[in-house]
Each structure stands twice: as structure tokens, then as C-alpha cells.
From TrEMBL:
SMART domains: CBS. Belongs to the SIS family. GutQ/KpsF subfamily. One of its GO terms (molecular function) is arabinose-5-phosphate isomerase activity. It comes from the Bacteria. Residues 206-266, 274-326 form the CBS domain. SUPFAM superfamilies: SIS domain. Coiled coil: none annotated. This is D-arabinose 5-phosphate isomerase. Zn(2+) binds at H78. Transmembrane segments: none annotated. Keywords: CBS domain, Metal-binding, Repeat, Zinc. The keyword Zinc applies. Signal peptide: none annotated.
Amino acid sequence: MEDVFIDVISEVRGILAHESAALTGLADHIGDNYLQAVRLIHNSSGMLIVVGMGKSGLVGRKIAATMSSLGTPSVFMHASEALHGDLGMIKPSDVLLMISNSGGTRELIEIIPYAKRIGAKIIAITHNTGSELAKNADIVLPLIYESEACPFNLAPTTSTTMTLAIGDAIAIVLTRLKDFRPKDFATLHPGGSLGRRLLIKVSDLMHTGDEMPAAPADMPLIEALPMMSRKKLGTVVVTGEDGKLLGILTDGDLRRILCSMGAGAIGAKIGDVMIVNPKRISADKLCEEAINIMETNKITTLPVVTPDGAVLGIIHLHDLLRAKIY
């Protein structure tokens, strides 16, 4: 059994090395055709329509989804469905990205006359540069590899990996041409945690007013625990008479202090034991930054302050969890 396990590991390594080498080889053959393809898509006033069948179709769906999520309007069109009415979605201003390893997939070939008749441009991704698809395309992006990773050289493996990588590369280059930024990504992903982390600000979630556990430095330490319980944030923010942040006291700090001071805690003030100069954040910062500060410093609360240190509120890790940001 041990020998079999070693063989499996060796096989997996070999397959990954095979596909990696194919991608490295492809990178050595990138030329002006890629520049032309990127320019064509970037300058188009229409949609990028990705067309494919079978495994190429599955990869095409991913490419179209990646393009759209990164700011290049794109849809996937199944080649078979195209021949039964979906051709109507193609407009003269559109660019077709047609994927066929053999370059001879009948359904794709039958789409070409209509696309050419209305003036839509065609970019082909194919292994066979002498194929019908390649001959009729405006731009060809060849799949350059010696064999599939499949031991029978039958199942689409290296070819689909390469196609997906080409799609990713073009999508990412287009983001740079469009000056696409994280805030743009967030705008297109409002339903996901990534989008929320890049859209929602601390001011949207922070506790203010009566919800905020704020106390003066001269408050008796013994009164801190009831305040923590009432406000349910496990923290007291210590402020000066001018409303500026002086320090912070968490329930964990309080427990340790009470254990160490014993009866001596009865006469102590919050200001005597508070954490001075705690981590803080501005209200206009993204929740993404609040998460980073909490993770880096292993804390669960952050006072929210103005540039001059006046306390505006407090944000807790639980607020980020409830908002499905963390």
C-alpha cells in the first residue's frame, strides 16, 4: 500500500509539472496577436460573447464570469443554443471569443457566417491553427502544447488549463487598461463578503450615543463591570472631559485586574488600570481595515475617533460577523 501511495504522489507531481511546463511554454510564445486581442476587446462598444461546447464551454463560462466580475461586460453563449435562436444576441459591435481545441466543432463553425455577415469580430482559441475556425477568425490565440496530461491524450486537461489561463490573463490585462480598482470590484460584488469588506465603512456599523460604553477616567473600577454588561460590548472606552480618547478597558483586562488586586480593586479608578494609547480607527475607514487591525493585534474592539482623537463610537468584531464581512 505504501508503494501505491508513493506512486500516486509521483503521478500527481508529474501531471502538475506537465501542465506547468505547458503554461511556461505558452508564455514564451505570446506575441502581437495577444496585443490585438486585448485592444479589440478593450475598444469594443459591445459585449464580449464567449462561445464553446463541452469542456471548452465549461471553461468559457468561467472566462465570461471572470471578465464580467473584473469590469469587462461578457456573457457565455452555448454554441448549440446559438443555432436555435441565441444568435439573436450577437450585435455588430460585439466580439466573439470562440473556443475549440480542434477548431472544427461543427456548432461553432456554423455560427461564423452569421457573425461575419453582421460584422462581429472573432477571436479564436484553438490548438489547430489550420482549422476552419482559425482560418475564419480575425485573431487566433493558439493553444501550444505537445499533449494532454491525460495518459491517453484524450481527455481535455492541458488544453482546458491553458484556455482558462489565457482567459484569466486577458481579463486581468483589461483591468489595468480600464484602471479597474478594488472599489470597482466591490461595486460589482455587493452580495459577497469581499464586496462588503470593500464597500462598508466603520461608520456604517459602529455603536454611538447610548450604545457606546464610555466612562470618565475617575469612574470607580467596580462600576465598569455593570456598564460592560449593560452595553454588551465587553469594553469600556475611557474619555477625558474634552471627549478625547484616553484609554480602553476590556472585560478580559478587568478580570485579570480583579484577580490580581483583590479587595484593593474596590477603591481603584478606571483611569488607574486602563490600557493607554489603544488601537483605534477613523469612522471613514473601510471595515476591511478594521478587520486587519483586529487580526494583527488579536483584539475584538476598536474605538472610533476623529483625527484629533475625539471618540465617535466603537466597533466590535461581532458587528463585522453580523454584517457577514469577517
